[in-house]
Write a structure and sequence with these properties.
The chain is α+β, with helices and mostly antiparallel strands. It contains one helix and five strands; from the N terminus they run βββββα. Strand 3 and strand 4 form a beta hairpin.
């Protein structure tokens, strides 16, 4: 996933690795390198991935680029 934000008018693009795990009740997805609790879930791999991508975008929009860990 690519995280997008802006600093002083310049866009920031950062790749975020997302882990998707299969569980007996469905799929759970979570990002690496994002501060705070962010997760997604779904009945399929694709649904869990879309859910966590939406959650990451919302998390960054709400709390800013500071939630992205430095490399």
């Amino acid at each position: 996933m690519l995280a997008k934000g802006a600093t002083r008018g310049r866009p920031i693009v950062k790749k975020i690795k997302i882990i998707v795990e299969k569980h007996p009740d469905g799929y759970v997805a979570y990002p690496l390198g994002v501060k705070g609790a962010v997760a997604g879930e779904g009945d399929s791999f694709e649904a869990a991935l879309a859910d966590v991508q939406s959650a990451v975008r919302f998390h960054i929009e709400t709390f800013g680029n500071e939630v992205l860990e430095e490399e």
